[in-house]
Structures
1.
Amino acid sequence: MAATRTGTSALLEQLRADGMTTIFGNPGTVEQGLLDALSSAGDFRYVLGLAEAPVVGLADGYARATRRPTLVQLHSGVGLGNGIGMMYQAMRGHAPLVVIAGEAGVRYDAFDAQMAADLVGMARPVTKFATRVVDPGSVLRVLRRAVKIAATPPCGPVFVSLPLDVLDAPNDEPALPTVIPDTRTVPVPELVARAAGLLAGAKRPIIVAGDGVAESDAQYELTRVAELLGAEVWLADSSVVNIDAGHPLHRGALGHMFGEASAAAVREADAVLIVGTYVFPEVFPSMRSPFAAGARVVHVDLNAYEIGKNHPVDLGLVADPRATLTALAADLERRGAPAAPARPRAQAAPAGESVYELFLAELAAQQPDAVVFDEALTSSPALVRHFPPRRPGRYFLTRGGSLGVGIPGAIGVKLAMPDETVIGFTGDGGSMYTIQALWTAAHQRIGAKFVICNNGRYELLNENISVYWRERGVAPHPFPSSFDLSGLPLGFTDLARGMGVQAVRVAEPEDVGPAVKRMLADDEPFLVDVAVDVPPPPNGKD
């Protein structure tokens, strides 16, 4: 008599049908049947992380690089809870993660037993879709629905709870490839013409663009429209290359912390085109519209929720950025209106002679085409001077506000791009949220490189509280001691070696050359702990 096909076996068939054979996870008892089946299958790769936050960070980097739905396995309520911070990061960054977690079984619901929790309720605030499978005949139907939702723009994480008894039950569902809806839509011609009419002829036009541009592969089309309008391009909620950073119309990123920074950049515009982003992604946004009175605002995005959400617009188009920008460019060309001249671009501050600057200069000289994962935070401006984000697929910036994505994110990108040199930059504070991910790099022989920008403090908090003091008329004084990490220095080289990753410390100029040479000598994981100078506190004392 042939063995009965279980829900677990059916689940693996569905994952194969969708090409989801790389799984990021941390094991647990209630998932033991699935993990046993995965171990026996020869065509799956299980990427083990030592804690749930690194696991989700690994998957986030992999999904960003592959741009495909990626499976994450967490353990019941405790594992899901530990991963929620990074799931928030994935939600804000629109990563198509399919997160699953096991439960002991539906039949135990009445017992309120050990590890029992409302997994769906926990996951719902940080996902596009969260559900629990209770019918053994609907495992694959629900999983396909989850994959479809995760991978349909605007992409984002989803969650499915899979009780053990549901997966152990017989299952005769067919495993079929999930159908992802095609969202390459363009507005009707009358609306394209209206958008062009609102933007054409503006004396001070600007474009605010975000990751929806890159998701639509619309970098060329965005650049063409900017050139036709003579519009400066500002980036909001932008974590990849949406326009070449070397283009003369590129103006950089708007503020992510305080609304006044964004308002200062856009307040003089008389026409604004918003594409593929929400406005504005700040922690402390302006309560008033930052746009000038009478400014004409057009917003193009596949995410209808974001259009006009915070500030009124004159025209909102729920449409694919690439197709819409193509049509808009054609309309602008037909009008034949001359492009408004762009203002001279501000020059970047010259590089200093700090050890960190010397290290970046040497690294860029030896490996100028490296793929960069940037969680350097306050050390990022120097990083992008030496590694400017110019080509799609070569630069990934942290997004969402969850510290700790730099190390696992770089590992995930390297796993997706094994032939590239991938370097993750993070801070001494942020790295400690997910330092365990170094073990995964060593254990799985994933040759990502890591740079710890070590300034001995949570420098971003120092910068932010300085703004807080200034806004409230508080005299500068010593920073809170809770922002200081220098009392007992973190031994990053020892931590790395303890998890199987070779490492060096760079504290003096003479350390730079040998460190970079060793870092790039092979395709094994390697960590460099670089001393970063920081400005003195307001009163000159720590």
2.
Amino acid sequence: MTRFLPALTVSALLTAGAAHAQSVRPLAEGLPAGALLTLETHGAAPAFKRFFGAADRLLSSTDLGEDSGSMLGVAQAVLGDSLGREGIAGVFSVQGKKGAFQPALLAVTRSGALTDELLGEMLPEKPGARVGRYAFSRVDGMFAGASNGLVYVSSDKALLMAYLGRLSGKAAPTLASSAPYAAAQRAAGTQELGVYANFSAAAKVIRSQLAQVMLPRLLSPVVDALDTLGQFAGGLTTTAGGWTTASAQVVNQAGKDRPLARILLDTTDFGVQNVIPASAEAVQATACHPHTGAYLGRWLTRVDLLEPFGFLTDSQLASHLEQAGRYLGHECAQVTLAGGMKAALNQEDPLASLATSVSYQRVTDRAAADAHLPEYARSVNEALDGLRGTVKSLTKTGMDALMDDAMADVDPRALMLGAGMAGASQGLDESLKGLKMVYAFRGEYLITAFSQEALDAALEGGPVLADDAAFRAAGLSMQSSAGWSYQPNPADLTAQDLMGALPRELSGDRALSGMFAGAMTGAADLINRFDGTTSQRSVSGNVIIGKASVRYRW
């Protein structure tokens, strides 16, 4: 009976916190405008309760279950009494001593009796300063305080005082009223756990910093791309049957990276579901603008000189991507075929999952594709063979130097490290040996893989995804869509399956395997509660709206 009393107390605190959070103004209405990034909670007590419940089940399967369960109960109570109500942590740009802007942290949360009691032991009895009705003190290099049902902390004194001044009635721009934040949040909606990022504002801060070190031209393409990303808001809300997510990205069409804006806002009518096998374990379909290859190729060219193995130069990958854009359409899909989940757990072969991974791309000019693809595949495969030789050479040079030092100093640790390097090199060589770009056509789609086994599986024929009853029931829109994803309820995993993901030294030792058995059983239970997911992305003007639903048995 005593085990149920803390649970009842926690539930009461969470319920009271959730009710209180709905009767007050949002914290964003008091924070200064100009946040680069925020992490937010809004009535998140149900989310904490469900997540902590899942963690408790996992810990209950180990020897730490009893003690850890009590600790989780305390943590859940504290979070429910603060962040479970409402909380927001933001990174803001403040002006530094030399005039350049630099990031600073400001975090605020609502508090209840439990939170106030804990904070009473951490904050000084006498506050160091006061702004209106709100007091704060310096605590270990930070500025923190608790007043009028709020707890606040900042790395910058002026930033905290500006916030407290707004709370005290001073008229000044606030985060909630700023156009970038309001537009993104309005499109995404309020979520239990949320994030907001202002990439355009971050780009301005970065430009200010780069101007101090005289490197604006060298990194200007990166900053231009960041500026074009605009603003993003999104988050998740838990439900009795899993959770839902919603996001909105407001693309900055005034940004200098115009090609990126076109790529981000691309939409198409999808037909790839008519050629993907119905047995696929996961599908991620995207509207990919024909200029995507050329755009990616330009970025590869910029980093080519920094790539240590010479693969980009040898494969001429940037050039081939640009040429492929001449015959590829607006439709791409990355597909994990049947058996992909278990293949990814194979620690013995890190590339085993490639045997179940294929890509689909719509072809608009078959003659151009037939003319280009043989040279494309040959160039990539020759570069992969060259990569094997480069890795062997670099490993041998390093290992020879290490072994020479080890023999001179009679250092057993260096000898063991040298042996480990030799084993790792051999394993990498075996993996690269089986890596080969292969392709085929099915209808209007080019299928590409790095494993002949995967390509053969994609070409087997049989039922297709578009005719699958569960897929049709998901109700995904294929017209004028920016993208969608679909993952059916996967086959259950066993503890033994998860043991395969551990290094051989652990999974092969009986004593260690016994220690991990309980944890793996609990982990398998958590994973098997996942029953699939669907997501949809659409474009409205310059806003990309994403929604997803995840089925999970809490």
3.
Amino acid sequence: MTPADRLLWRAVGSAGWWTPVLLVATVAGAAAELALPAALGRAVDAAVGATGGESAGRWLAAVGGLVVLLVGAGVVRDYGTGAASARSVAGLRHTLIRHILALDPRTAARHPVGDLVGRLVGQVADAGQAAPTLVLAGTVLLPPVGSLVALTMIDPWLGATFVVGLVLLGVLLRGFVAGASAAVAGYQRAQGHLAGLMVEALAGARTIAAAGTAGREVDRVLAPVPELRRHGTRTWTVLAGAATRGAVLSPMLQLAVVTVGGLSLAAGRLTPGDLLAALQYAALGAGLGTVVSALNKAVRVRAGCRRAAEVLTEPARRYGDRTLPPGPGCLELRGVIVRADDGRPLLDGVDLRVPGGALLAVVGPSGAGKSLLAAVAGRLRDPDAGEVRLDGTPLPDLSAAALHAAVGYGFERPVLVGETVGAAVGCGGDPVPVARAAAIHDFVERLPNRYGTPLAQVAMSGGERQRLGLARALRAERLLVLDDATSSLDTVTEYRVNRALTDRADRRTRVVVSHRIGTAARADLVAWVAAGRIRAVGTHAVLWDDPAYRAVFRS
């Protein structure tokens, strides 16, 4: 079973008990639809006296009951389709979001944000139609097959005529699925590409405005539109072609049934009621609209499942089940190698030991691998070779809860998550101590609802946003990793934050990526990174004797 098939059955399962309800309602509606022509025919024959004095009232009552059943089944089917789809879409979106957030950042980065949003919003909505579409696909042949049986029972010649029409119908639909599948898949890919370009442009809107390149950006964002139009045109062309051929086939088939039925009526093999029923069965069985609609929905569901499954097949980051033993927070990198997608080494054989409770400054020229080393140190990225240990425990062996409680990250441009300011600082506990350490408490106290203020209503500078992100990082119990996390702070605020970070009473291990000479001077150790390797580890005072080290700060 392919990943797309597994996702389709997961969507059907997410619909819950609505799937059997839809099946019962659809089958009941189809049965009533097939019984109605026969009941009408009997009523006509009873009315004209062709059934030997049989009462027409009884058959008219049966017709009325079948109409009521048809209406009731239609109401249940329409409501159940919406309810089942809503449940399936919600379940699939929860699954997809959880998986995306569980991916390794490097893996997630291979998918543009706009493309992921397109899959989550558009393609999952298509895949969520799986339950009603499966029911529809499983019952779509009931009307033509039932009509064939009924026509054969009325007159075998009518059944034979109808078989010829069904063969033509099969030939007509033979190429529809393949053509529509390719067109829909191409349309969804182009749609995802367009969404990705649009998200990139919105993220860089200020830069585009400042550079005056809006015209070029519009052309770049709209570049996938011709492809989108081509696939969309192809989709509608296939649908229109099938509908047009069906519009020709259906009346021809009904005309053939009328001709054969008229001859049978003249020969005395049919009653007027039988002819009326035969005409209705011919119209019901030859109706191509339901079949085309079912196939079109099946194609879209299949394409949506395939697009969503492409993300779900990406391996999620795995965690162990261990917790950290008691320890001071000793960090060790042993033979760490990280490669680019083209195989080029970005970190090459890094060996580093940071004593528990020490403050390590990571310095080096731009592109040396400082941020990558910081990412590896707290398992934002797993190395391609080597291992990283915290208090002797390999980081991949830790449970997610243990890792996230022990390690905290602060970034130059943090993304704040949560409904309120307090939620952005972190869940649980008192946010005030870490907010004070990050020099953001006074700012929060001036907000209307302080830590309960909705995050979306707070206007913040880059420095204030950076300090809120830093406060969240300061909740770490054992290892604090800061990647240029104080670069947007003014001098006074930076001094207050650095004083908190260099406090000797802080027993956590701190790894700080910085370009500031003051940070390196206050650190217990400095790791000098160059070209993906550790060039030297020592105190700032000792390393300062090397002219190349001094040049790092001058640059």
